[in-house]
Model the fold of this input.
Amino acid sequence: MPSYTAKILAATTICLAFLLGGIGAVGRVAKQAGAEPVSLCVMTFNLRYASPKPPNSWPERRPVMRDCIRRVAPDLIGTQEGLYEQLKDLAADLPEYEWIGLGRDGGSRGEFMAVFYRRDRFEPLEYDHFWLSDTPDVVGSSTWGNANRRMVTWVRFRERRSGRGFYFWNTHLDHAVELARQKGAALIVERAGRLKTDLPLVMTGDFNAAAGASRSYEILVKEGGFADMWLLARERENEKINTFHGYKTPLENGTRIDWILGRGAVSADKAEIVTCSEKGQYPSDHFPVAAWLSLSASKQPVQ
Done:
């Protein structure tokens, strides 16, 4: 019959084996969840606000836009200019997506910087908005001479399969006032710096300024810590096509005013200016831009 001491040693051995096995299992799960990069297809798309007047009315453009987005099948879309009823139409046409947004004039009023995301793949953990002004937390504020309110909508997501987190920001800089564009870019850099996180940040937007040839681009990319995913991409399609065409024959001098930027552990495999149309009908006066990105592992746990 085993002694009392032998029984204690045997029980201790079993407990240690169980504990160490549990720790090993947790470590294996953590390794599996965080080791591989997360691949995303991201799109930025100025929708052109809904208008009932032909040509290029929203009823004419709506099915072309639906088909364009389905062809690319992005995981996340940053939209600009969409009105509330227009965004509801788009959500009805694309039921695989949910969306988050707020009208730039508050509530459902004015244009949205809406974020669409695949509901089965991403969980929004938190979101908010701020206005590009000297009072960014005041809804609908505008202080730099721009008549149209400008804002940022941001979301912190968790990718369901991997459990990994990242930020997604979406904006629209002013079309008329250079000072407003520059100050807006500087505010975005300042707010991004406040995050104090190593989570990757992806930003989409209509910046109303040429990539590589504007002061707002310099503030964001050359000075502000953001990277231009278009330039990082190993493969680029339609790089001579301008992203804004105004429903006319697209120009081919390579002017990009619609950008996808990244901050932190974000890399790009491919980028494309998506030249979609059907029977001469464009979905918007902008072409969407898509990028296929990889987000590397973060040291920060998702909560």
About this structure: Residues 1-35 form one domain.
